[in-house]
Amino acid sequence: MVRRDLEGLSREELIRRAESAGVVRARALTMAELIDELILDSEKKTGEKRPRGWFGRARDLLTSVIDRGLALPDAPRKRPAPRIGNASPPPLPTVTLAEIYAAQGHIERAITTLDEVLTREPDHEEAAKLRTRFQEQVRKTKPSSRPPPPQTKPLDTPVIPAAPASPNVAVGESVRVGEGVVAAPAKPAAPPPPPAEPQVAEEVVFDADEIVAVAVDPSTVYAYWEVRPRTLASSRARDEHGALVVRVVAVTAAQGGPVTDTRDIRVDALFGELFVRGLPENAQVRLSIGYKTHHGYEPFAVGLDLTTPRALPAAQPARAVRRWSQIRAEATDPAFERPVPPSGPTAGGMIPRVGTGHDMVGDLPAPAWVQ
After folding, report:
1. Which single residue of 88, 241, 256, 370 could bond 269 by disulfide (Cβ 3.0 to 4.6 Å)?
2. 285 pairs with which residues across the strands?
3. What digits encode the pLDDT tens for the residues 299-327?
4. Where are the alpha helices (DSSP H) in the chain?
5. Total-model pTM
């Protein structure tokens, strides 16, 4: 099916086709992303490449960079003239981008992104539900409604005592000795003006270098980065023959020791997003954004560590606790002082196996896993 036919389908029909094709979180994707995923699935089955949208071209560009070995190009002989008026376009509004903004604390910015998604696709149920949840969160964090104005207590009517009776007062007049004259009630004081409504401050632009990553599936990580212009300008002033790269480090446990996979993905925009595919499952992953030259790598921001999920459940639970040691004597020398494992089951239900010498590590080369 070509792109023109897919664009004529409704959102629900695209979702059903994407779910049958095995697309992860199909209901959270926009129609443009769904069409790209369906075209990619059709290319894998038929081997025929079809024209794709912005997301498809971005994915092809990222794949070509990885296939070339992630090496920096040769330094140009002459520095090209700076381009003027060619600013990078803002990222397209997606539900994933709104979740990233919310994770950073920019709830208002996430709602604005979801509004743009709903403007393009009014029947996007996941975006509407997420927007309602964010609005409830904003309503709970905002201060409560203004207190009612203070009620003024009515003043008691003052009573002015009458003057003593004089001999000129005739009998039968209304003024009597000993009675008080009631004064006119005083005008009540005007209530104070209500407090002015607090002005909502405009959203403050997050002026910092940052990178945020989220594990999408066992082998894919989504990343979003922002770099301040002055940060990149400062690094280029020191060495102009460099590039802005996203460094991905994945560490997995193996029988012979930890295995580290490092990738450097060149990016040109000061802010953007990308998908890193082909990562090992159940790996500790760390991403950073920085400036790479022939002399080394200078990180601008380092993201939080994350773990890619397992593709399949473990065949059997672990019953022994081991740790990696760089000291061979700790595993082979019985006289070497080592921490004593706790008695009984440890946290998680694992039972440590106690042993010494070659019974514990066999013929493994140094360094080795020890109890």
Report:
1. 88
2. 250, 306
3. 999 999 899 988 887 766 767 766 666 66
4. 3-7, 11-20, 31-46, 54-67, 95-104, 107-120, 125-141, 229-238, 328-332, 358-361
5. 0.36
